[in-house]
């Protein structure tokens, strides 16, 4: 058999060292009844997910030097359902914050939404049209800290009002990071989000845009969430929503940001499309 081809999205030894203990512990907690250790390397499964997220390819178009698509799909769905994708993401996020001299969890988050078109395989019952942005598809909402690291993700039909997205995000933020006591949102979020935040002990501030400003002007602190949304667009699998279920869409976001964080923690250069 010829030597495996490497891809710029593959984990380096240092990057894999950050993820491997979590997956090893998961495998130890899920022993095979027959005692079989599995045919495929877990590192190659993760590499395949990073590759697919970045390239946007279909399951059936995963390069042949990765494990079979059926195996990669199995672990993607299994880890999604058991929350391992979020466990990996959370450990990496805490590591990035600690490396920057910050506490593991933030006290302030910034919320925003992003509407994207949905692929033809996405059930119509989970899609809609964003009336403001004129985008038919799905709407993802994210909450980030001041470093732009994701604290929570939710996915709804694009027709969902930002109030619905905002309240769902705040509920997850409160469960995920009890230290959060303030949230910044834009004018798309209304008083319902402020009231829900108050019930959770989170002071929600609606940042008013200066009416004299023309065009897009980055707002202090809030620009971090815009930057993170832009970063997601570097992952072709996230440019459009290809996932049949919304929980799979959320998992894709966690894997995309995890890929970014392992590079950040190891000082690895981020792959760019400009050299393609």
TrEMBL record:
Record GO terms (molecular function): DNA binding; transposase activity
Keyword match Zinc: no
Entry keyword Transport: no
Annotated TM spans: 142-160
Keyword annotations of the record: Membrane, Transmembrane, Transmembrane helix
BP GO annotations: DNA transposition
Source organism superkingdom: Bacteria
Domain Transposase IS4-like: 105-255
Pfam family, one: DUF4096
Segments forming domain Insertion element IS402-like: 12-88
NCBIfam families: transpos_IS5_3
PANTHER family: PHP DOMAIN PROTEIN, TRANSPOSASE
Protein name: IS5 family transposase
Native source organism of the sequence: Streptomyces beijiangensis
């Amino acid at each position: 058999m010829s030597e495996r081809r490497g891809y710029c999205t593959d984990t380096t030894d240092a990057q894999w060292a950050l993820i491997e203990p979590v997956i090893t512990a998961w495998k130890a907690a899920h022993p095979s009844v027959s005692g079989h250790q599995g045919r495929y390397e877990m590192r190659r499964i993760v590499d395949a997910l990073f590759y697919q997220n970045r390239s946007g390819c279909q399951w059936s178009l995963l390069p042949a030097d990765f494990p079979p698509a059926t195996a990669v799909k199995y672990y993607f769905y299994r880890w999604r359902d058991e929350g391992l994708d979020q466990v990996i993401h959370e450990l990496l996020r805490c590591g990035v914050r600690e490396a920057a001299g910050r506490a593991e969890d933030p006290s302030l988050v910034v919320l925003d939404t992003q509407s994207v078109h949905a692929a033809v395989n996405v059930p119509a019952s989970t899609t809609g049209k964003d009336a403001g942005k004129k985008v038919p598809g799905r709407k993802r909402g994210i909450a980030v800290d001041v470093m732009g690291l994701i604290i929570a993700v939710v996915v709804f039909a694009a027709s969902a009002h930002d109030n619905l997205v905002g309240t769902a995000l705040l509920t997850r933020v409160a469960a995920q990071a009890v230290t959060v006591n303030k949230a910044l949102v834009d004018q798309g979020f209304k008083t319902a989000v402020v009231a829900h935040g108050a019930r959770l002990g989170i002071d929600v501030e609606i940042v008013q845009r200066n009416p004299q400003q023309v065009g897009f002007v980055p707002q202090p602190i809030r620009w971090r969430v815009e930057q993170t949304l832009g970063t997601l667009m570097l992952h072709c699998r996230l440019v459009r929503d290809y996932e049949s279920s919304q929980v799979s869409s959320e998992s894709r976001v966690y894997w995309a940001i995890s890929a970014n964080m392992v590079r950040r923690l190891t000082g690895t250069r981020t792959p760019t499309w400009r050299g393609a």
